[in-house]
Amino acid sequence: MPCEVATWQGILYSEGHSMSIDIALIILLGLSGDYLFRRMKLPGLVGMLLVGVVIGPYVLNLISPEMVTVSGDFRKIALIVILLRAGFELRRDTLNRVGRAALTMSVVPAVFEIAGVMLAATSLLGMTCLEAAILGTILGAVSPAVVVPMMIDLMDRGLGTNKGIPTLVLGASSVDDVFVIVLFTALLGMHGSGDVNLWAKLAGIPVSIVLGIAAGLIPGYLLYLLFKTYDWRPPKRTIVVMGTAIVLTWLENALEHIVPVAGLLGVMAVGFVILEKSEGIAHIISQKLKKLWMFAELLLFVLVGAQVNVQVAWKAGLAGMAVIGTGLLFRSLGTYLSLLGSDLNVREKLFCVVAYIPKATVQAAIGAVPLAAGVASGELILAVAVLSILLTAPIGAIGIKVLGERVLERGERSSLRFHELRDGLGLPRVGERIRSKEFDTVWKVIEEKETWIEAPHKSDGVEDRAGAIPAIWLRFWREDTGSGPGMGKTLYFRYSRVDPRFDQYWEILYDW
User: Fold this and answer.
1) Which of 135, 389, 391, 505 is packed most tightly, with the most Cβ within 10 A?
2) Looking at the structure, do residues 292 and 373 belong to the same domain, yes or no?
3) DSSP single-letter state for residue 256
4) Is the dihedral of CA 219, 224, 226, 227 positive or negative?
5) How confident is the model at residue 409 (pLDDT cuts 50, 70, 90)?
6) Domain count, the chain
7) Residue 171's closest CA among 262, 247, 282, 239?
8) 3-class DSSP state for residue 405?
9) What value does the mean pLDDT take over residues 26-55?
10) The domain containing residue 478 runs over which residues?
C-alpha cells in the first residue's frame, strides 16, 4: 500500500502538476462521492467529505501542498456563496415569527454543550476546567457548511416553511457560531495571560452581532440602489454581490483588534435587504448563486474533509467519543428547552435537535489553535475536535435529510412552487432581455404575475393534490423598435406545466 501511494504521488507531483489538477480531482472524485451516496439515499455531502478525507494530506496525500495552503480561502469563498443564498431566502415576516426561539437557540444549546463537555472531559480525559472549557467552545459550534445548504434545500422544497423551521435553524446557527467563537477566544486568552476580562468579552458578543448586521445592511441597500439605477444583467449583479460579501469577511479580520464584527452575519444581511427591497432582483441573483453553488459545494466539503487527520482522531479513542456524546446530550436538552413555548410539535422540535448536531467547519478551522498556543492538552483537544467531525457531520446530515422528509410539513401553495416552476421552465425575470427564435427580434421582460390556475385532471400523469397549479404571466416589450419606455408593442404569455414551453419560441440574452 505505501508503494502504491508513493507511485500515485509520483505521477501527480511530476512536472506539470498544479492546482488545476487538484481542482480536477476535487471535481471528479467529489461528484463521484456525491453520486454514490445519493444512490444510497444518503446526503451527497457526506460522500464529498469522505472523498476529502481520503485524498487529503493525512491519507493518500493526492492534493498538492499549494492547494492545502490556499484551501482556507477556497472554503471561505464557498461558505460566502451559501450564506448569500441563505440571506436571499430570509423573509422579514418569517424572522419575526421565529425571533424569540432563534434567540434562545443561539445561546442556550451551546452553553449546555460546553457544560456537558466540561463535566466529561475533566473526568474522562483528565483535563483542567479551563482546558475542558476551551474544548467545549470548539465542539459547541454548529457547522454552517452542513446546516445552511440542507436548510436551503428544505426551503426550496417547501418543507417546514409554514412554521419557518428552516429559517429558525438558519438564523440561530449563525449567531450560535459568533457566540461560541467569542467565548473560545476569551478562554484561550485567559489560558495565555490570565488577565482577559471574560465579562468584557461576553459584552462584545451583541456588539459583534449588531455591527455585523449593520455592515451587511448598509452595502446591501447601496447595492439595491445601484441595481435599480443601472440595468445590469444578472451575471454582473451576482459578481458585484460576491465581491461585496468577500470584503465584509475581510473587514472582520481587519477590525478584530479594534472592534468585533460578525462578518458572516453581514454576508447574510446583504441578501436579506436586497430581498426586502426588490424580490425580483433578489431571486435573479439567488438563481445565479444556486448555479455557482454546484462548484462551490464541491470545494467546500472536499476541502473540509481534507483537513481531517484520521490518525489524530484515532488517538481520542472511546473516551473522546464519550465526551462528544455527553456534549451532544446536553446540547439536545438545551435545544429542546429553547423551543418550549413555540408552536412546534414534538416531532418538529426533535428535528431541530438533530439539525443542531453537525460539526465540521469551525472545528476544522480552530481545532488546532490551542495546540499552537501551547495549551498542555492541545493535541488531545485537536484529536477530539477531528473526531467530532467524523462522527457528527455524517450522522447530522443523514438525520436532517431523513427527519426533514418525514417530519416537516410541506407548505400548501407555497411561493416556492413558483420558484420550482420558473427553474423547471427556465423562465426569465423582469429586466432580462429575450430573443424571438422565429422572428429574431429582441424583447424585454417588463412585468410578471404569479397566479394559480385550475389543474386538469391529470398533468404529466400526476394529479395535483391542491386542485390548482402555479402559473406565471410574463409581459414582453418590443425593445428594438426605437420606442421609449411605455410605448411600442407588448405581448402577454402564460407559462405553466401544461402550457407551451418558453424555450420553444424564446431564448434569454445573457448580456452584461
Assistant:
1) 135
2) yes
3) T
4) positive
5) confident
6) 3
7) 262
8) helix
9) 86
10) 416-509
